[in-house]
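Pilot study result, target chain (227 residues):
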Amino acid sequence: MAAKIEDIGACVFDAYGTLFDVAAAAARCRDALGDKADELSAIWRTRQLEYTWLRSLMQEYVEFRQVTGDGLDYALAALGIEDDALRQRLMDIYMRLDAYPEVKDVLTALKSGAIKTAILSNGSPEMLSSAVDNAEIGDLLDDVFSVDSIGVYKPHPSVYQMAVDGLGVDAGRICFMSSNAWDAAAGANFGYRVVWVNRFGQPQERIPGNPEHEVKTLEALPPLLGL
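Predicted structure:
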């Protein structure tokens, strides 16, 4: 059995891919996308992330909804799809993505254990509020931190500092969960205690920072914390 993570004051979660299913939008439009649904989802997600990194380096910040739309436009063009109504449908669904099935129970367990909970995300406040409301988890969160307040995307260290300042908990007492290998590594490099939720079977990144634990879903988190 993996060693427990002790002396944790807060659990902080990435949003997209960790709490909310980023593949849900394309999956729910499979009737229109057909056999292109999975490919579109993969291209869309890749470009969405790449544009956050590029815009941060270029110091050309725009909020995440625009970046998400830009990534979708690239994916649609790459697959030769021209359909304004479908584009709008995909964007509307992205605003209220499905939460993974274990999310509510895990957050409930953490709150019962008197551990603070928060989201730390690239998402804009409007997007995060919509996703949280759709998942009905607002009363299980102490805070929701959006990079929009500082104008730079992960993995800039100032993003991870937001949870330290906002929750009043030292980095070494924050347990951070992300499904993105690069985000998990960056959080560990910053000083968080990191559990990498490797939902997608990714290889470990070759950048600074090593998560303490790797799990398949968030169900494994409460036992790691002794809950």
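One observation from the pilot: The longest strand covers residues 116-121. A full batch analysis is planned for the follow-on phase.
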